[in-house]
């Protein structure tokens, strides 16, 4: 059940929000969808769900269209959160589950399980408006997964949650993957994607600038971070050709280099200057890759 996008374009008038996007989202994996604000992530999700028509291109899942007749196989946590504020949590979740073809008794059982898991069983009979924003988000996440979808699309699932709830949700996402769900999620937080995803895509102005498996992307990118700890002043390393960025740290420095071979040069320059306690050539973080490819730093 691979989700495939082939040369998908979406225009709003003369503005191109998604530009010739081809993607393959493997099944039973967690796929990270990254991009700066306005890059086109939500627009892509809406096209996949059939909520928006693409201007050009093909979207297929399981070899066919993603239509309303498949909505019981798909779970969606939209970016614009929204539950019925006056309804009680259980009433609301049962209603949404029934829309996706679940029987009430099974829905009730699953709701109890999820509320327990998210440590909010006491909210079952509370009105949604009485819950904090983060707890409402947990309820909305439950509504997206209650019917055990095969494909789960999560638009910034971790935004607005405290660290304990982020961990709780991450664990739930990992367990759903283990159970065979294919998951796509968008995020602005590189470390979440780095931790959870096997594959990812970085969108920039509607086009993919990086796409593939995380470990292969890192390998292609090369090791471009050098960390040095020494008992002498390291500022001179900043002027070695090929060193892009010099960042002093309390006990040493961090350098960004153009290519791996510059590390050898740095190593040689350090010889005879004093005691070097640490010299590490490190893989780039996803944040480094994002900044290089998209040219903007953000949270
Ligand atoms: N209905 C619409 N009409 C006109 N322009 C739109 C519409 N929907 C989205 N856009 C534009 O398309 C671009 C992509 O928006 P989209 O919401 O997909 O970005 P995003 O990557 O999800 O951003 P964010 O991280 O801020 O949520 C933006 O410039 C947005 O203003």
From TrEMBL:
Keyword line: ATP-binding, Nucleotide-binding, Transport
Provenance organism: Halobacillus faecis
DNA-binding is among the record's keywords: no
Gene Ontology MF term list: ATP binding; ATP hydrolysis activity
Family membership noted in the UniProt record: Belongs to the ABC transporter superfamily.
Top-rank taxon: Bacteria
Pfam families xref list: ABC_tran (PF00005), DrrA1-3_C (PF13732)
Location of the ABC transporter domain: 3-230
Name of the protein described by the UniProt record: Putative ABC transporter ATP-binding protein YhaQ
Matching PANTHER family: ABC TRANSPORTER ATP-BINDING PROTEIN (PTHR42711), ABC TRANSPORTER ATP-BINDING PROTEIN NATA (PTHR42711:SF5)
Keyword ATP-binding in annotation: yes
Gene3D superfamilies: P-loop containing nucleotide triphosphate hydrolases
């Amino acid at each position: 059940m691979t989700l495939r996008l082939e040369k998908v374009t979406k225009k709003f008038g003369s503005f191109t929000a998604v530009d010739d996007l081809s993607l393959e989202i493997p099944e039973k994996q967690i796929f990270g969808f990254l991009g700066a604000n306005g890059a086109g992530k939500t627009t892509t999700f809406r096209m996949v769900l059939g909520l928006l028509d693409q201007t050009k291109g093909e979207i297929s899942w399981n070899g066919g269209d993603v239509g309303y007749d498949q909505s019981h196989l798909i779970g969606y946590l939209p970016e614009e959160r929204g539950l019925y504020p006056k309804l009680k949590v259980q009433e609301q979740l049962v209603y949404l589950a029934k829309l996706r073809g679940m029987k009430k008794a099974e829905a009730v059982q699953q709701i109890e399980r999820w509320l327990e898991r998210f440590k909010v069983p006491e909210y079952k009979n509370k009105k949604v408006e009485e819950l904090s924003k983060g707890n409402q988000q947990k309820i909305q996440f439950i509504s997206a997964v209650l019917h055990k979808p095969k494909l789960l699309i999560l638009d910034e699932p971790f935004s607005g949650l405290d660290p304990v709830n982020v961990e709780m949700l991450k664990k739930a996402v990992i367990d759903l993957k283990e159970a065979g769900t294919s998951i796509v999620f968008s995020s602005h937080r590189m470390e979440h994607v780095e931790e959870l995803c096997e594959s990812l895509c970085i969108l920039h102005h509607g086009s993919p600038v990086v796409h593939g498996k995380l470990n292969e992307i890192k390998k292609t990118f090369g090791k471009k971070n050098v960390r040095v700890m020494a008992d002498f002043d390291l500022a001179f390393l900043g002027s070695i050709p090929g060193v892009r960025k010099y960042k002093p740290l309390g006990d040493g420095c961090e350098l960004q280099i153009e290519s791996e071979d510059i590390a050898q040069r740095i190593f040689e320059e350090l010889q005879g200057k004093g005691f070097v306690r640490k010299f590490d050539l490190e893989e780039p973080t996803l944040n480094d890759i994002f900044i290089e490819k998209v040219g903007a730093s953000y949270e």
